[in-house]
From TrEMBL:
Pfam families: BMT5-like (PF10354), FDX-ACB (PF03147). This is phenylalanine--tRNA ligase. It comes from Picathartes gymnocephalus. The keyword Aminoacyl-tRNA synthetase applies. Keywords: Aminoacyl-tRNA synthetase, ATP-binding, Ligase, Mitochondrion, Nucleotide-binding, Protein biosynthesis, Transit peptide. The keyword Nucleotide-binding applies. The gene is Fdxacb1. Its EC number is 6.1.1.20. The lineage of its organism: Eukaryota, Metazoa, Chordata, Craniata, Vertebrata.
Amino acid sequence: RRVLLLGEGNFSFAAGLCGAPGTHIVATCYESEEEAAGRGGAARSIRRLRDSGAEVVFSVDCTKLEEYFSPGNREFDRVYFNFPHCGRKAGVVKNRQLLAGFFHSCAEVLAQEGEIHVALCNGQGGTPADQPRREWHNSWQIVAVAAGAGFILSDVHPFKAETIHGYRCTGYRSQDKSFCVEGALNHIFTRSTAPLCLTPINCKTQLGSQKVSFEVPQVLMDKINRGFLKVNSSHPVRTIKEKLSAGLSQAFPLQNISSCLPLLLQGHPDGVCHSSIFWITLSPGEAPSTEEMSQGLEDTVLFSHFGQDTDKNVQGGCPIPKQFYLRPSLLPHAQAIIKNGAFPPGTLHVLSGPVFRKCLITPHSMPVFHEMLVVLAVSRGTENSCIQMLVENIRTTTSSLHQGLSAIKPSISLQETTSFGTELSDFAAFECHLGEIQHFLCMGTEPDPSGSCVGVIRTAPDELKSSELVVVSASLNLDLLAMLLCGISDWRMLWTSDRRFLQQFPEGELRLFKSFSLYPPSYVHDVSFWLPDREEFDEVAFHTLARRVSGGMVVSIQLRDSFQQPGTGRRSLCYRVTFQACDRALGCREAAEMQLHFREEIQQQLGVTLR
């Protein structure tokens, strides 16, 4: 293991590390050898380092490391920089600039899986780990500075000088004087994954008997065909789905029919706001005819209650063109199976897969999530007892899942639709548009036992052409369940490409998630604009545009002001937009560029006039 130490004052820290088996140390300082040797104890430490085989290099500028190490001698596994400082009475701005240059330089010499350790005095870093915490503008803003160079804070812990034998801090105001390290913190940074590539991609899917392709909406580019529910996946949403299926199979005969469910539906959704749908244009020449659509797979969805055959619809004397959209629910697939007659009573049919919905930006609002839909035909009059069996089974399974998660204590409850009033989550509100709901399925965890809506239960007596049977269905949001069970605070983390996420979830096992990106910096920008005359403002489209241009980096949009101009009646809105990543580095410059792009796009796409 190659270890680089920068800014050594008297080399006592480096000397305390030397001799570790399997470690090659390169210790450096900014001063010349003559200046460094004059510090108390430095000559002895330098001699010890050289005797142990370590390299000692002088006059090294930490912001230009690539100049001191040839390409073959870089790739350091760990870089230490203890108590960096510009010297004398340099202010926070100069020290931020020093850190910025240091982190950019480290990007050239650090191994891909390497770590950067930066020790700072209490309060300097500006993170919640500092006690007391300084005001942001008066700190070194180390996490934001590191993010600008592509690094994330993965750990922070007390700097324990007493564990390094012979270590004595020095360099207070560029003098051979020690300084207070009580409460000092060691910040550990790692490389971030690269920003999302926004190159358009095409996706192929089955539509009737024909394979078609379409361009994936930019906001979903990293969400299509991720395979989280496949057999070889260790993703927590699959683990939860498999555990729930196993539990349900003990109470009901079970048939899993999730394979080959088409991503696309055709028609015009009824009851669902069109702005909540991801509309799709097929690649040129690939739109199938109604006859082709009608052939082939039993689970192919043509037109359920979501819409009608557009070839037969006429508007103003002209046929309405075919329209395709990403499925917002698995219900149409279940309805198609029921209508095709492949639905024996008493057998629990399980469908699962990702569904897509445009929505506002909130912590638990997801434009895509994995739905698990269970459907069962039962004798009329027994539907309530069937619902109780389903809920009890789900409650038992989730209770068993949390046994390895000592900090999480979930509780499943069944709530009537009337108990929610108007305070519905985006998930629950959208489900209401898909059809009448009998019950909301809620999961609570301490300290919020009231819980979040993670599913809905419906009964549909008209689905079957039988007066003796009733269809009972339960739709579960597997992503919300994973968040609540594993303590994941941000839904975007479920879709991260960073391998450190899945490494925490061995196949078939759920664990309490520990974030590998601590205290990610946030950047706040305001945008105000005049609305077009006599047009309703589509807030969902506004939020979706923010998601698209930022690659999902916008975490909050809040209306700050609404103004109507006297005389003209023109309306102006002002929104506060907050940018923050949960799994990768996001620097202030990148966030500012996103804001500028957002301003351009809302002007072009929504027809507003910027103020």
